[in-house]
Amino acid sequence: xxxxxxxIAPHTAVxxxxxxxxxxxxxxxxxxxxxxxxxxxxxxxxxxxVLHFSQRWLAGERLYADLIDVNPPLIFVLNLLPATIAAWxxxxxxQSFQLCMITLGALVWFLAQGGRDRDAEGRVERTLxxxxxxxxxxTAGYDFGQREHxxxxxxxxxxxxxxxxxxxxxxxxxxxxALLAAVGFALKPYFLAVPGLIELAILxxxxxxxxxxxxxxxxxxxxxxxxxxxxxxxxxxLNSVLPLVYEYYVDLGQLNAFWVLFTDRLGAAVWTxxxxxxxxxxxxxxxxxxxxxxxxxxxxSAMVQHKGWSYHVVPxxxxxxxAALLLAARALDAAAFPRSLAAATVLSAVFAGHAxxxxxxPWREIVYPSSTxxxxxxxxxxxxxxxxxxxxxxxxxxxxxxxxDADARSTxxxxxxxxxxxxxxxxxxxxxxxxxxxxxxxxxxxxxRTVAEDAAKAPPSVIxxxxxxxxxxxxxxxxxxxxxxxxxxFSELWKKYREVAAVDSYRIYVxxx
Length: 513
Description:
Structural class: mainly alpha
C-alpha cells in the first residue's frame, strides 16, 4: 500500500511548482516590461556613434587618425564585437549591439548570484537582489548601452561580492567578477572612484588581511595592462587627441563640479534619494553600505565630468535606488513581513517606476516615428541608404542613430563638428564672421582642411547640413556651407549637389551624376 504522503504528494506538487514559478518570475516582471522599450528605436545616439566608429575601424580606417574622438580606446575595442557580428551575420549594428548587451546582462546575473551569501539574506532582500541585474540592465531606457550604463552593469557583481569580502570570505567567481568590474571601471578614469571607496572600506574592515584578497590586484593588473597599451597601440590618442580634449572638450558643459549637483535630474537623485539613504545607513548597522559607497563613487564621477547629462546620472540613480530598496527590504525582513514575494515585487516595481519617472523611456520610443530623429532616419533611408554621407552639423543626436538606421557611412573624421563649434565659440573683435585661414588655430584648420580634402578625394553621395550651427550669432548666422566653401576644393565639389529633402533644420543634398 502507498503511504499517505505518497497519495498526497501529487495534489500538493502543482501549488508548490506554481509558487516557485511565481517567486522567480513575478519580481522580474517590472524589468521585463522594459525589454521591448530598449529594443525599440531609437538606438541611443552616443552608443550609435561609437558603434559606427568601430564599424569604420573594422572596415580599415585608422582609429585616432581617420577616426578622431575624445573617448579612450577601450570603448571602441569593445564595440568591435557587435561590429564584427554585424559584418558577418544578417543582423545590423544596433541589433548586434543589443544582442551583446543582453549576453552581458546574463553574465552579470550569473556572477551576481554566485558572489552573494544568499543564506545570510532575508527572504525579501534575497528575492529583490535576485532581480537587481535585470533591473540594472533594462531600466536604463534610452541610455541603454551608454558607457556609464556599461560600467554600472559590470560593477554590480563586484559591489555585491564586496559585502562578503569585507567579512573575510571569498565569493565564488571572484576573479571573473574582478575582471569584469575592471573592464567597466577602465572605460573612464572617473569611474575609479567606485573601487577606490569600496576597497578602502574593505581595507578598514579587514586591516592587513585585505592585502591577501586577489580582487584588487586583479583589477590593478587590468588597469596596468590597459595603460601600458596606450603608448604602444594608440600613441595618437595620447599625442593628438588628449590635448584637444583638455583644450576644447572638458569645459563644453559650462558647469562646474559644485553646480552640477543642482541640475534637475542629478539634483533629484542626490537630494531626494542618495542623501536620505546615506543618513539612514550611517545610523543603522547592517545597512547596504557597499551599494551606498558605489552610489557615492558614481556621484563623484558625475561631478568631475561637470556636465549633468542624463547618462552621467543613470549610475547615481541606479545605485542609490538599489541602496534605498535594499534598506527597505532588510527592514521588512527584520519585521518578519509574511508576504516576502509580494514585498519584493513591489520593491522591484518601485525601482522600475523610479526609472520611468526620472528617465525618458518609454516616451521617447513612443513618439520616435513623428520626432525629428525618426523623420530624419526615414529621409536618410530614402536618399542615403548604404551611401557615404558627409555630416556638417555639431549634433550627435539626431544624426545618430539615423546614420545607423540607413546603414550609411559618415565620411567625417570626427563624429560631428564639435571641434569647429568649439574653435568658433566667440565672435571676432572686428565683426568678421569667419577667420582667415592664416588666423585659424591648428584645431580649426585641421577640421577646415580635412573636411574639404576628404570630400574632394572621395565625394560623398549625400551631404547632410544643419542650419542650426550651435555657434553664437555674430552679426549673422554661422553657415557651414559658406564656411567650408571658402576652400577651393569644397567650393568646386559643392556645385554638384542639389537639395532633395528637409527635416526641420536639417537639409539633405544628393550628388548629381
